[in-house]
Amino acid sequence: MEPLPSAAPLATKLRNTLVQYHGIADSEWRVAKKTKDATVWRKPSEEFSGYLYKAQGVVEDVTNRIVDHIRPGPYRLHWDSLMTTMDIMETFEENCCVMRYTTAGQLWNIIAPREFVDFSYTTNYEDGLLTCGISLDYGEVRPDFVRGFNHPCGWFCVPLKDYPNHSLLTGYIQTELRGMLPQSAVDTAMASTLANFYSDLKKALKT
């Protein structure tokens, strides 16, 4: 098990990586799924052999409230149907923490429950916020779970200029589920999970 890294340099590097993803040209993305709530694209990841996914949709609420529902905290577990447990293991200054969480099985349990330990960081971005994370090799792996790994991931949330009570939410996700899984099953699950994330989030914000 590795010791915890210094929070500030990791947060800076993570933010810079996400801003770089946010600048990738539209022509590099291929549509993976489209619903009334969101569009999901993908491109080959430069971090591992799977895909980097981009999801985007307009959410009817103010930026701070949306990000409060996404980042580690009391809201996320209530509405995110994929997340089954979440514990904050360490808290740092500057809106950084380390959290351990578990996810439910997917695709009739072809994808078994997973456990992740992520460093999470939330910061200002333009007129809105960016909440981002990356997995750490930290803490004992619990039995009954496969330890997955999130390469740099994050959510940009910025208010729409003409509709300040609406926000444009753009996510970048590249999750290495690990274990013996057919890549096609992973790709199907990822695109659907991201689209469902928007519809679940919208329902949660209305309650």
UniProtKB/TrEMBL annotation:
<feature type="domain" description="START">
    <location>
        <begin position="29"/>
        <end position="207"/>
    </location>
</feature>
<dbReference type="InterPro" id="IPR042555">
    <property type="entry name" value="StarD4"/>
</dbReference>
<dbReference type="GO" id="GO:0070508">
    <property type="term" value="P:cholesterol import"/>
</dbReference>
<dbReference type="GO" id="GO:0015485">
    <property type="term" value="F:cholesterol binding"/>
</dbReference>
<dbReference type="InterPro" id="IPR023393">
    <property type="entry name" value="START-like_dom_sf"/>
</dbReference>
<dbReference type="GO" id="GO:0005829">
    <property type="term" value="C:cytosol"/>
</dbReference>
<dbReference type="GO" id="GO:0032367">
    <property type="term" value="P:intracellular cholesterol transport"/>
</dbReference>
<dbReference type="InterPro" id="IPR002913">
    <property type="entry name" value="START_lipid-bd_dom"/>
</dbReference>
<dbReference type="Pfam" id="PF01852">
    <property type="entry name" value="START"/>
</dbReference>
<dbReference type="GO" id="GO:0005783">
    <property type="term" value="C:endoplasmic reticulum"/>
</dbReference>
<dbReference type="GO" id="GO:0010879">
    <property type="term" value="P:cholesterol transport involved in cholesterol storage"/>
</dbReference>
<protein>
    <submittedName>
        <fullName>STAR4 protein</fullName>
    </submittedName>
</protein>
<dbReference type="GO" id="GO:0120020">
    <property type="term" value="F:cholesterol transfer activity"/>
</dbReference>
